[in-house]
Amino acid sequence: MPDNDKGMPAERRIGALLVISTVAALALAVVYIGGGQPQAEGALLGIALGAIGFALILWARGLSTEGTVTAERGPLGGDHEDEDVVEERIEEVSDEPGRRSVLKLFWAAGGALALAAVFPIRSLGPAPGRSLLTTAWKPGARLVDEEGRPVRVETLPVGGTLTAFPQDAEHAADSQVVVVRVADGEIRPRPGRESWSPEGYIAYSKICPHVGCPVGLYQSDTHELLCPCHQSTFDVLDGARPRFGPATRSLPQLPLAVDREGFLTAQADFDEPVGPAFWNRG
Ligand code: FES
């Protein structure tokens, strides 16, 4: 490899940079395993990538020549003498210890960087399993308000609304519902949901299917729920179908029942995932 600059030969400089890159990548892995420290990890990643980048630049400079070089083009093909010269030159080049060392160091630096890149996979945490598809609602779970008081069938007047949670799981953020009471017979249930709205009570997930804001504003004159973030509106009487705004999915509906003591309960969990669309939903 030509040494265009005075001082340390190019191979040595490339080798030094690759060693620096390797050490920095290994140190990055050690810092990560030791609990992580974002500033140190950022600095080490910068050093590892920077050093390997400079090494590649020096290596590329060694491969090219300065200025424009022109050469006479002779007849195509060659005689046996030329072939021997080429073979000899290839052997010479592949036997040069400096080049081989540099290539080994490139492998080492690349391997150390790849190793450091594998560790953050651990930061993804445990697989979510079915947790994105279900909530804390169980058959027979009572609805409670924000103070933990069970919701009775006479709690809301027609036109009233409240936010409810499953009893004993009041802090399950994905399970909160907005409960609305409308006059009996006003609801136009979707097929299969005829028994989900006893006494004019109807409950929908409070998490907007657009990007997850709480849908909490109810306009009783138009029977619409409004999301304050981007003004999506949902028709309460028609399965919370979106009427306006960026939301494209209806709010998931919680099937309700009234137990023998007059408390509102869930018949089951939602029949679809709540919240914004994610990768496995069309
Ligand atoms: S989050 Fe509800 S409309 Fe955007």
TrEMBL record:
The regions listed as transmembrane in this protein's record are 14-35, 42-60, 105-124
What phylogenetic lineage does the species belong to?
Bacteria, Bacillati, Actinomycetota, Acidimicrobiia, Acidimicrobiales
What superkingdom heads the lineage? Answer: Bacteria
Q: Does the keyword Manganese apply?
A: no
User: Per the UniProt entry, what species is this protein from, by scientific name?
Assistant: uncultured Acidimicrobiales bacterium
Name-wise, this protein is: Cytochrome bc1 complex Rieske iron-sulfur subunit
* Molecular function terms from GO: 2 iron, 2 sulfur cluster binding; metal ion binding; monooxygenase activity; oxidoreductase activity, acting on paired donors, with incorporation or reduction of molecular oxygen
Q: What does this chain do? A: Iron-sulfur subunit of the cytochrome bc1 complex, an essential component of the respiratory electron transport chain required for ATP synthesis. The bc1 complex catalyzes the oxidation of menaquinol and the reduction of cytochrome c in the respiratory chain. The bc1 complex operates through a Q-cycle mechanism that couples electron transfer to generation of the proton gradient that drives ATP synthesis.
Q: Which UniProt keywords apply?
A: 2Fe-2S, Disulfide bond, Iron, Iron-sulfur, Membrane, Metal-binding, Oxidoreductase, Transmembrane, Transmembrane helix
